[in-house]
Amino acid sequence: MIRLFVLVSFLIMSSGIGFCSIVSNIDKKEIELTTRFDGSKILVFGALTGIKNDPNLLIELVGPKQDMTIRKKSKVWGIWVKKDYAKFKKVPSFYQINSTNLNSDKRREITNRKLEKYFFSKLKNTETTSQKRVDKKEYFSEFLRLKKKKKSISLFETEITVLQKTLFFSTIELPQKIFPGEYKVIISTLDENNEVIKSSSEIVKVAKTGIQKFLSFNAANNSTFYGIFSVILALFLGFSAAQIFRLLKI
Amino acid sequence: MQIFLPIADVPVNLIVLLVLGVGVGFLSGVFGIGGGFLMTPLLILMGIPTAVAVATEANQITASSFSGVLAHLKRRAVDFKMGNILVIGGLFGSALGVEIFRIIKNYGQIELFVSGCYIIFLGSIGILMFVESLSTIKRSKSSQINTLPRKKHNWIHGLPFKIKFKTSQLYISAFPPLFLGFVIGILASIMGVGGGFILIPAMIYVLGMPTKVVIGTSLYQIMFITAFTSFMHATQNKTVDLLLAFILIIGGVVGAQLGARVTVRLKAEEIRILLAIIVLLVCLKLALDLLLVPNDIFSLTYGASH
User: Which of residues 118-177 of B touch A (CB under 8 A)?
Assistant: First the structure.
């Protein structure tokens, strides 16, 4: 922590004193997804200058975009079958908003705006097997519930701490299952009407490494090689097992 | 100890997975079964995506059947000619199965489809095994020996394209083994099983092969078919998880060897009833998942397939 504040003080000094500016940083620019990866915490910190009142701050983390499908089960001939579905085109695989102590009206307003921008506007192809349209609102609220359950969406669950109206820090907790790619951290100061005054952003690169990278890269991009490799590995292990147990029996 | 599987994209407990591998391997050592028909549904119940469980289990069976074939080769208990014809049929079956699998997967119904297949197969095998072991116990008590006749002449022996199978001492049409191989190929690719539980009785009672070459020959076919199936799944569906396969192979090999050693000390029929009960319980769990009101009627998946 001490090192962080020394760094922050350095950032303030190097940025110079100007009219409302943000300097920010994160403690991790790169995250490695290994076989033992068990989630990660990112510390976002920085300093504000030129702000007189208590600042209203917002930190967002927007993960790499993915298509998603939500399906609803219905009973068909006594069996529960996935029947109707709705698709989301390119929505953030992970999304989190942290804020300073905003009142509930402001939170609600920001939540609605952000969810519309990142998620609801991406809800496409709401179809059913009988060609009827599904209830978009119902599917969207279920989508949010499932995303929250998977810990891949978090809205105003973590606060931003502000010290002496200038220094701030907050944490973002990434769950065990995250997608590789670029995670954008956006730090914004808001005015009374929730409009952005200034913002700055940082990038966290999340990449698979080691055996995770080797296997998932080749499975996706060199599937012929991967297929042959999987067969050879199986034959080799089968052969080794036969040899080892033959020797043990002697 | 949690590890993250790269293709299945789920975290699993390494110890639980190893115990599962050893456990199913042990049962397969005791009963001389492949274990695929138990392992695949157990993986699905553990939370591994169905498509990955099926494709990866095919890969594991390649390893276990290869080590089995090597043992049988030494005893010259493999009918290569018969094996090769079964393999040819199997390759077509497997290619068709993987294609069916891919289409159903794209419609998002692969869980339902595979569960349905398993409920039918586990249900019928479990009941058959249960009834058979019960009657064996009864028979052994009344000490009557009653076996099915092996070489029966039926319509199958009247088909054209007859081939001489020296090792099996048979002169039969190539069509029945081709068709049998074809069916096994479909089963392997859709359910992630070796298919020995159908192949072996069919070889004995339908083709009329001598029992001493049946296991070696079936392992020979299963090895080729599961190798081809796992290659096809890897290229068509990209669902073979090598890390998962590696762990299962290691666990399975150790379990099978342990199982093979304790066989002599246990009474076969009684243990077989136990296996029948395990099979029926897995079947029941899969059936209940389809019949009872699900915990969550909504589900979320990545990707924008149908």
Answer: none
